């Protein structure tokens, strides 16, 4: 049982130690600061013990030197206490620094995951792991610094206090130590129960954040269906469940802390009674008794603090487990290499490439060969596998079998961030300006690149200025504007392969025709692959990939497929009917 306990602590300490390395200089400073703070606190009673026992002698000097000595001692104590008072602030700074390091690591790990990860972890849960699990007391940031230095401070005070107290009266010291084993026994009894309640509390918080995230993300649908009351009721039920869990956790902590306080105070009163009898019997002096009383008061806090730190560790370890669960989730192979960004896509080839979703669907045995420059349309009915194909070309989905090659190399060994521009069906915009949404954090994208990309996408200053802030998730722009901003984002990096997933569907016929005219005039060497449900878009292509029920049925020019493939012609007629209906 002891070895299991030590192994558990060793595992978490090893994880935390990784975040001590970047701040090791500050940690050394904090160790010295901790010892200074402890020395000041521990030296205070000894100084007053000296003053109490020698005040008559000091003040009895014929000149004022004795009085000046007392003033000097008190001034030095006041200055030392002021400096020691800065210690909690120094700890808080290191807490924040470690919190930032942990969050950066976890966020970076999340950004390297693929669809399997995001299929398992919901956005609200990830938000909780990146915020509450790291910064809340007593979670990772606090425990990684303050908890350890409080333990160091408490241990140093405990050892020093016991040493001085043992020197003054070993009998009273043993009596003062009696509550400590009882406190540790109580912690041992509640440890596992506390861990389970903390884990349940973390999950409940994640579920609440999931609901809030999905509600705000789909607020337009909520309003359209008048679903405010049902969602409010669901949130109320979640909060009730969370309240019950948190209340049971707080109740357990209150019981433990209350027992600690009662045991500590009873022990203190017992020691004071025994010490008072010893003073009456002249076995110790009044100065010794005062110092012993102060040290006992100082000893009570570490005696309660150390068991409390064990309780806090259970909560911190649950949060560390949650971060480790995210960071240890398998990453796609394409992130396991340090490949330089590919500059240009000249050709892309799929050889018997397949991908299957766990719940069914995907693509089977797709084979084709595309060369730049050209415009390729991917056509098929809803659910046929068009979006899956585009994500495979973007490197977002890895083939379960077969290969996809770019310029003759396996796509999983390449970095396509500079060479490919990808626009998904649902445009994702930040609550920033149009300019920042197009730049998207890329330092290589200039102001001219942004203006040119917006012009090709059909967004002028009279419609949406570059500095206009869009609001959360781009609510300050219409559906068509959001799509055009997403297109401009893809174009701003001057990609040699442009992947468009039905993103022109939100554009009217005139704007779409203008978009293709501008794109073809400025992108002479680009391989453009567009998923579409519009015949007008299909007519812009030189090659069509016809997908049906997860298979590539046919490939060729639009006119040839229209004449030779009845199923393709049927799908196109459906497109025409849909376009005429929309008009």
Sheet with most strands: 6 strands, mixed
User: How far apart, in Å, are the first and last alpha carbons?
Assistant: 74 Å
Strand content: 5-15%
What is the CATH architecture annotation of the largest domain?
Up-down Bundle
The first-level CATH class name of the largest domain: Mainly Alpha
Would you count the extended β strands for me? 10
* Apparent shape: elongated
Integer average pLDDT: 80
Strand arrangement in the largest pleated sheet:
6-7-8-3-9-10
Radius of gyration: 35 Å
Topology:
Layout lengths: L1 H19 L3 H36 L5 H20 L2 H25 L3 H6 L2 H8 L1 H4 L4 H29 L1 H8 L1 H39 L1 H6 L3 H53 L5 H42 L19 E10 L5 E10 L2 E6 L6 H8 L7 E6 L2 E2 L9 E4 L10 H6 L7 H11 L21 H14 L4 E5 L7 H14 L4 E5 L3 H4 L4 E6 L2 E6 L1 H7 L1 H17 L1
Parallel strand pairs: 3-8, 3-9, 6-7, 7-8
Antiparallel strand pairs: 1-2, 1-4, 4-5, 9-10
Helix pairs in contact: 2-3, 2-4, 2-8, 2-13, 4-8, 6-10, 8-9, 8-13, 9-12, 10-12, 10-13, 12-13, 16-17, 20-21
Give a quick rundown of the structure.
With 583 residues, this protein is an alpha/beta fold. It is 64% helix and 10% strand. It contains 21 helices and ten strands.
Could you characterize what this model shows?
The chain has 583 residues and is of the alpha/beta class. It has two domains: 309 residues, Up-down Bundle (ABC transporter transmembrane region fold); 236 residues, Rossmann fold. It is 64% helix and 10% strand. It has 21 helices and ten strands. The strands form two sheets. Strands 6-7-8-3-9-10 form a six-stranded mixed β-sheet, with helices on both faces. Strand 1 and strand 2 form a beta hairpin. The protein is elongated. The model has no long low-confidence stretch (mean pLDDT 80).
